[in-house]
Amino acid sequence: xxxxxxxxxxxxxxxxxxxxxxxxxxxxxxxxxxxxxxxxxxxxxxxxxxxxxxxxxxxxxxxxxxxxxxxxxxxxxxxxxxxxxxxxxxxxxxxxxxxxxxxxxxxxxxxxxxxxxxxxxxxxxxxxxxxxxxxxxxxxxxxxxxxxxxxxxxxxxxxxxxxxxxxxxxxxxxxxxxxxxxxxx
Length: 185
Hints:
Mog1/PsbP_a/b/a-sand, 7-stranded antiparallel beta sheet, 16% helix, guanine-nucleotide releasing factor, alpha+beta, Protein Transport Mog1p, Chain A, transmembrane transporter binding
């Protein structure tokens, strides 16, 4: 079932067992955040300023490094990009985008400034909408190895729900639809 995003201005197919984090805590206006009810996975849909100085094929990497900076994962070896591939427009519902990309990479991040670091696979979906001065970035955080000292270790041990898959992520990307361009004001 498609899920309204940003008050229905966008919609997408959000995977099963997703909890809307805005019901639990304050989320910035430019973000929609979902967490898996049983695993430590999360999905973030965010509207970012279009980076006109960055070429389309480099934009996903630009945003990935930006996230690594926020995650304090910038030291050598703490983040790496495995692949960046273009998404063919024929497979997308978001016909307004100039180009779309999927980046897969890993970052070693700690939660809540803990010493313990978890290895997280990040799948980024990037839709470039220069006509609206917007980059739509969808991030799927998929923790791989959770340090036993991390506060997430308990949550990961009690996995009853099936975790999300890359297929779930691709379905979300392919189903993303714009209903109201006024969103980009």
